[in-house]
Amino acid sequence: LGAAVFGVRGGVGRPGRPGGRARGVFKAREPIGRRLDFLVQEMNREANTLGSKAQDEELTRTAVDLKVLIEQMREQVQNLE
């Protein structure tokens, strides 16, 4: 998937950014549920962009799988305070 991202203009390296910010949220000593929910929403937008710009069938399927995983993460994050 990482190599395939290079073929999508404007999205090079961007999917890693929300994940990097999530690590910082875990280190903070404040409620993290809302912040993680926001980051998961951002990850979902990035997956949507990846899927819509993909011209390769396998990459499109991977983007759909990624969206399913992100939705599962969002369900878990919504249980946090």
Strand content: under 5%
SSE order, as H and E?
HHHH
Number of DSSP-assigned strands: 0
Low-confidence stretches: 1-8, 11-15
Overall pLDDT score: 78
Q: What is the helix content? A: over 70%
Number of domains: 1
Could you describe the largest sheet, including whether it forms a barrel? none
Number of helices: 4
SS content category = mainly alpha
What is the rounded distance between the termini? 32 Å
Shape: elongated
Instruction: Indicate the multimeric state.
Output: single chain
Structural Rg: 14 Å
Short description:
The chain is mostly helical.
Walk me through the structure:
This protein is mainly alpha-helical. Helix 2 (16-27) packs antiparallel against helix 3 and helix 3 packs antiparallel against helix 4 (57-77). It is elongated, with a radius of gyration of 14 Å. The longest helix is centred in the middle third of the chain and has 21 residues, at 33-53. Helix content is 72%, strand content 0%. It has 4 helices and no strands. The protein has one domain.
